[in-house]
Amino acid sequence: MYPSVSRLFDVMYYQQKAYPQRIALAGKENGKWVYHSITDYIDTACALSRGLLAMGIAPGDKIAMISNNRPDWNFMDMAILQIGAVNVPIYPTASEADWEFIINDAEAKLVLVSDSDLLAKIKRVLPKTPTVKEVYTFNKIDGARHYTEIAEMGKNQSNRPVEDIMQRVQPGDLATLIYTSGTTGTPKGVMLSHENIISNVVNCTPRFPVDPGKKALSFLPVCHIYERMLLYLYTLKGVEIHFAESMDTIVANMQEVRPHVFTAVPRLLEKVYDRIVAKGRELTGIKKSLFFWALELGHQFEPFGANGAWYEFRLSIARKLIFKKWQEALGGEVQLVASGSAALQPRLARIFHAAGIPVMEGYGLTETSPVISVNQFADEGLLIGSVGRPIAHTTVKIAADGEILVKGPNVMLGYYKQPEKTAEVIDEEGWFHTGDIGEITSDGFLKITDRKKEIFKTSG
């Protein structure tokens, strides 16, 4: 499908050739949107790559990033990846003990943090992390080294060394170490190659029918593989990526950006639903009656017109009178919401679909880069209460005890420095044991019936 795309940084160059976007990335600075074209994106990443090489960073070296979502994160990510180095994203909210463990386990040589609070936190950790040579910041902070200094170090060099190394980076090379939550002991470093993630990007594109030039709003943590994989997908598809300022400004940012696609977690959708219903309860008379009539209708929703013409007629009226306001609250242009991290209650899925806000639930883990399966409209690929059919080239089977087993190019290389732990979850035949219990319907839809792990885990 995308023969020129086999490493993560290839998505930038693909966009430049196929959809030379005027806006590839956008973030807010001092209250104003700042836009970066795909050419800006590539030029900045290459300048940073040259600087990293000038500093002595070599293929395989680890660089830790502790930051909120912002264009700078993407610039640095691509700069790291295209010289064969390894990006180690760390949750800003993780404990100092976890930071210390992860940085030491990965033997990170550089650390980048976004703001003054995180800078103060890393300074407390630094005396116990001897491999770290320098700390840089994304925000400009007095007394701190700004990450643009990295680009300055390589400003007098040509791109030749970068291009030479890029050509040597192989799809199977390690791209990132993502440390899973340490709730059951110390965090484990999940080793994901370029091929692991790029295969997931390419095989998920049919499930995300969003056209070039459309807009995505990003607010789930980019340090998690769920949001991060979708950022690569958006870049590949020529979708503008707009970063929300914070979790508190999502509603305002949606009004400004008017996104066509975004990712969400069920608890966020639950909050949106509760807020809308609370406003509905404040209505009086016929308006209140209409609101709750539409709500009741929405809870009966079945996809592909399964409820018949009379239901669809009433739903069309409800969408015009009531649900149009729901759409406007999310910017008025939403074509697709991808939901993960936990089970989406069927009633929520039904009501949002009825409202013309298609929420597609999926399933995956960090170890599977992450998507295993996801719902879609095409090929009648939506079954409410399921997590969709497996994506292309990913095979799922149910073990005798009901455990979901997965095999495919998206399955991790293993846990970093922990071959015994790797052997516990990837068997001799290459099946990854998810630790989740499920079943596959006669139509090929995967259902999760019990969980030993959270799906698409998004909090540190």
What value does the Rg take, in angstroms? 23 Å
The low-confidence parts are none
Beta fraction:
15-25%
Coarse shape: globular
From the N-terminal CA to the C-terminal CA, the straight-line distance is 35 Å
For the largest beta-sheet, the strand count, sense and barrel status come to:
9 strands, mixed
Strand order of the largest sheet: 2-1-11-10-12-13-14-15-16
| Approximate helicity band | 25-40%
**Mean pLDDT, as a whole number?**
95
> How many helices?
15
Query: Which structural category do the helix and sheet elements fall into?
Result: alpha/beta
Q: How many beta strands in the DSSP annotation?
A: 21
SSE inventory with pairings:
Elements: H1 10-18, E1 25-29, E2 32-36, H2 38-54, E3 62-66, H3 71-81, E4 86-89, H4 96-106, E5 110-113, H5 116-125, E6 134-137, E7 145-146, H6 148-153, H7 160-168, E8 174-179, E9 189-193, H8 194-204, E10 215-218, H9 225-237, E11 240-243, H10 250-257, E12 261-264, H11 266-281, H12 285-298, H13 309-329, E13 336-339, H14 346-354, E14 359-364, E15 371-374, E16 389-390, E17 395-398, E18 403-407, E19 414-415, H15 419-425, E20 432-440, E21 446-450
Parallel strand pairs: 1-11, 3-4, 3-5, 5-6, 6-7, 10-11, 10-12, 12-13, 13-14
Antiparallel strand pairs: 1-2, 8-9, 9-19, 14-15, 15-16, 17-18, 18-20, 20-21
Helix pairs in contact: 1-2, 1-9, 2-3, 4-5, 8-9, 12-13
